[in-house]
Amino acid sequence: MLTFTIGTFAIALNHLLLISALILATLVGWRVAKRGGENPESVLFTLFLLGMLSARISFVVMYWAYYRNDPLQMIDLRDGGFLAWPGVIALSLGTVLYGWRRPLLRKPLSAGVITGLVFWALTSFSLNIYEKGTRLPEITLRNANGETVQLTDYQGGPLVINLWATWCPPCRREMPVLENAQMQRPDVTFLFVNQAESMQSVSTYLATQGLNLDNVLFDASGRLGQAVGSMALPTTLFYQPDGRLINSHLGELSQASLARAMEYFETDSTSAKPTPTRKPLCPASATC
User: Fold this and answer.
1) pTM for the full model?
2) Which of 172, 200, 248, 256 is the most exposed place for a label (fewest CB within 10 A)?
């Protein structure tokens, strides 16, 4: 399961774990402070923001080439571009500084920070192990010509699967980014799996937007989202040639966050692309 969903609300599990770690740290700090000391609640929240800010700045610096021509992208956090370890280091240094300046805060703050970090690290590691153990679902879809195709037909090379819909604003914003990646990385197969929309409406949308996508597939009942455990859109999945999931991203992708996700793939240009046994697919925006 990649997301936690209640009704129409969905949140990525890794985000939920981060919030849970903050709540747990606050509760532990409060309990320790009751035995003697200063309640660290406000300081913990400040340190949390400091860690997130440091993680974001570090990401922007590392992928500066993707931000320099559009500085406003740096403050658009919807792409999920963060580096964890710089954030942890900044949070730890902040904890030391607060503890040095405010002695009554040392024990409650240290207990809260250590508890939160240990919880986040262990649960994130467990989620990562679980996620990387899942395989490409054996699901039947339809291509832009209305033909039946097996999702597993596309195994054999690096594979990126994007679950999307035309009514989804983040899906529409990230589509040019994915289209550009499709052209720049011919060693990787990109599948654009539309969720529960008609072929005609999707074809019309792609044509009006001038998008040229090689592999548009249709999942009329949303079974793929159910199979991978993500009912939120957009969701992007990254599979190894053997069909093993190695990464996932819930929400909008920017050029920078997609570039980071693609780093999980081997850069060997000799990687074989999957070769479906069916005849080549036409782009959904074209007439064959």
Assistant:
1) 0.84
2) 200
Which sign does the torsion angle of CA 178, 180, 181, 185 carry?
Answer: positive
Confidence check: pLDDT of 273 > 60:
no
* Residue pLDDT, tens place only, 21-48: 999 999 999 999 999 899 999 999 999 9
* Residue at a domain's end among 132, 163, 182: 132
CA–CA distance, 119 with 122 (Å, rounded to integer) = 5
In the chain, what is the greatest distance between 2 CA atoms, to the nearest angstrom?
A: 75
CA distance from start to end of the chain: 38
Q: What is the mean pLDDT of residues 13-27?
A: 93
Residue 159 counted as domain residue:
yes
For CA atoms 265, 127, 256, 113, the dihedral sign is negative
CATH number at residue 192: 3.40.30.10
- Rounded-to-integer distance, Cα 81 and Cα 60, Å: 8
